[in-house]
Amino acid sequence: MLTALSALATLSAKAQLGFNYSQHDLGLGVSTNQVFGDAEKTTTTLSGNLSYTYNATPFVNYIVELQGGTLKGGDSVEYRSGRQFKNNFIAGSLRAQLQAGEFIDYSRSTLMDILKNVYGSVGVGLVSNRIKEVSRNSNTIPGYYTPGKDKSTELFVPVKLGYEYKIFNSYNEPSVKIDLGYQVNIMAGENLDGFDAGERKDIWTQLTLAVKFSVGGVTSHRKPLMRD
Q1: CA–CA gap between residue 99 and residue 122 (Å, rounded)
Q2: What 3-state DSSP class applies to 220?
Q3: Is-contact 194 205, C-beta < 8 A?
Q4: Distance, first Cα to last Cα, the chain
Q5: Beta-carbon count within 10 A of 29 CB
Q6: Does residue 227 sit within a domain?
Q7: pLDDT over 50 (residue 106)
């Protein structure tokens, strides 16, 4: 009886090999940033992020992210407006993410197996702006001044496209994930760059490389996560 039960347990474990995944990930990453706002010149800066991911399935994910860094732009000498800024920001966001593997059949095609990790994501966030350096006056147009706030908190909508490369452990479970994505943050306000000029809202873009580590809550998916 014991031998039969042991064999049954072994067969059951093998049947789940390749189906299991962790429901919880912790991650860290780095981003390059650009602001397209009221300052004419765009400058690339760096920021860092920490994230927690809840995996409803291996391909349906909910991400809470906290990030901080510097945003810059403009040139007070080169451009007539005189606009130039530096923003030391902190931001938090919540995103829902859908990967192609949730709805495509990747069991029979190497190409589909590669494409299963392509994802789209959208959510909502808040950014706390702290303008540490700013030039509001033109050096060439007398009396020309651009108003704005040195401190503000603004709502934004993050829209992201990317690819999540999964590294599997000896049990064929995705234990490490390398994420490369391009994110467009659509601002609800005008003060990401410290200037309030014109009717167009600021846009903040990011190219992000992150690493995520599975931290527990192992459960099973309806189909294998790896091709044979």
Answers
A1: 12
A2: strand
A3: no
A4: 33
A5: 21
A6: no
A7: yes
What gap in Å lies between CA 48 and CA 222, rounded to an integer? 35
**pTM score of the predicted model:** 0.88
Q: What is the CA radius of gyration of the chain?
A: 23
Domain count, the chain: 1
What backbone torsions phi and psi does residue 110 show, to the nearest 5 degrees? -65, -40
Q: Give the whole-number percent of the chain exceeding pLDDT 90.
A: 76
- φ and ψ at 157, to 5 degrees? -110, 110
CATH code where residue 152 lies: 2.40.160.20
Whole domain around residue 58: which residue ranges?
21-218
Q: In whole angstroms, what is the distance from residue 104 CA to residue 34 CA?
A: 34
Tokens at 136, concatenated: 């509001």
Does residue 11 sit within a domain?
A: no
C-alpha to C-alpha distances, 160 to 19, 94, 204, 205, nearest whole angstrom:
27, 12, 12, 10
Q: How many CB atoms lie within 10 A of CB 122?
A: 12
Is residue 92 one of the residues assigned to a domain?
A: yes
Task: Classify residue 100 by its DSSP letter.
Answer: G
Q: Identify any residues that bridge with 206 across adjacent strands, giving them in sequence order.
A: 33, 183
Of 26, 91, 18, the residue nearest 54 (C-alpha): 26
Mean pLDDT of 200-226: 91
Structure tokens belonging to residue 90: 């902190």
In a domain, 55, yes or no: yes
Position 17 scores a pLDDT of: 56
